[in-house]
Amino acid sequence: MFSSRLFETPFKWLGKTVLDINYSYDVNGFGSGDNTYAYVTLVINVILAIIISIIWILLGNSRKNYNKLFYWFIVALRIFLISFMFSYGSVKIIQLQFPYPSLAKMLEPLGNFSPMGLAWTYLGYSKGYNLFMGLMEIIGGLLLIPRRTSTLGAFITMGVMTHVVIMNFTYDIPVKIFSIHLTLMALFIFSTDLKRFIKIFITNKPIRSYDYFNPIKNKTYHKIILWTKCILIIAFFSIFFVQSYGNNRGKSNTNKPPLYGVWEVTEYIKEGDTLQPLITDTERWRYLIIEQANHAIAKTMNDVNHSFKFKTDTINKKVMIYSPGTKSETYNFKYELLNNEILTLKGDLYLYNLEIKLRKKDLLLDSRDFHWINEKPFNR
């Protein structure tokens, strides 16, 4: 709400006047939920909440209770949590939030990773872990739907979101503010049944059955709500499975391109001269990465990636290698492949005649699978 440009000027004025923020910042966090404007908004929200609470206390003393208001407040929290648990869980199950690391990413030195980049790579590697995280979030959301299981749903959601909060803090992921809000919402819902929880699991005392508060006694209304819940659940899972099917079908139909893999350059000959593998060289290739159809990445000796349009004619043993903006469709390289391990490219690029010899590089992280039996730890 307050991210609208309508509030930008007064909020920035308050940030400068009250919080002494003198540097420039933007409303748009460009994907970050922990930008300066988000913290300014958080402080203003807290101040507004305190002011409204004081006014409410001063004007609302005549009320005997706030059962109805509390009921609808909990309903609003549950709906908010359910929506985000479903959306967060679904993108994890189909591995859209944490995609499997690319071959180019695997070639990056570990020390070059940002903490967030390391977390995304670590989480993206395991499909099973993505499935587990996504299922736990969706299960928590599902249990929040019926009022009878909302305490259990809040408990599971609280545990799941605590894990997310710890990840955000320890890996510098800029969603700390929002993840804390979701965790506190789950904690608040759970706290409504905290006394009963303590009696059952800690003090081992008997409890009586719970009498649910119903602000609306109309049976027709409750039937409508029940059917609405069922329809929405069915709609969500229908959309989810269609998207999942489309995503998996797209992956299965996208066959690995010819010459797929990471190719390490063993010899680079330019105009008859062999370029030595010096780490300061900006021209000599170190690796050729072929992972997607019609695209390749050449990593030079100075660790800079260069994208190329890359098409392969497997019948005539020719390759097209051009810069992305080039419109030419001429196959400018011939290639020879020996035992799917040794690759030789001969042709012209940037008006230079090149002969490049490459050897396929095995990436352990990409090739090692799950093992039920490990005679000794394989930790490299």
Percentage of residues in strands: 15-25%
User: What radius of gyration results from the CA coordinates?
Assistant: 29 Å
Q: Percent helix among the residues? A: 40-55%
H and E string: HHHHHHHHHHEEEEEEEEEH
- Structural class by helix and strand composition: alpha+beta
Spatial strand sequence of the major β-sheet: 1-3-4-5-6-7-8-9
Q: Uncertain spans, ≥5 residues at pLDDT below 50?
A: none
Number of H/I helices: 11
Quantity of strands, as a count: 9
What is the typical, i.e. mean, pLDDT?
Answer: 89
Q: Please outline the major beta sheet.
A: 8 strands, antiparallel, barrel
Indicate how many domains the architecture comprises.
3
Q: Which of globular, elongated, flat, extended, rod-shaped describes the shape?
A: elongated
Q: Separation of termini?
A: 48 Å
Detailed description of the structure:
The structure is a single chain. By secondary structure, the protein is of the alpha+beta class. It folds into three domains: 5-208, no CATH class; 216-254; 261-364, Lipocalin, CATH 2.40.128.270. Helix content is 47%, strand content 17%. The protein contains eleven helices and nine strands. The protein has helices spanning 8-17, 36-59, 67-93, 103-106, 115-125, 127-144, 150-170, 176-191, 194-203, 219-253, 364-367; strands at residues 261-270, 273-274, 285-292, 295-300, 305-313, 318-322, 333-338, 342-349, 352-361. It has an eight-stranded antiparallel β-barrel with strand order 1-3-4-5-6-7-8-9. Strand 8 and strand 9 form a beta hairpin. Helix 1 (8-17) crosses helix 2. The chain is elongated and about 95 Å long. 19% of the residues are buried. The model has no long low-confidence stretch (mean pLDDT 89). The chain crosses the membrane at residues 37-58, 70-91, 128-145, 152-171, 224-246. Keywords: Membrane, Transmembrane, Transmembrane helix. This is DoxX family protein.
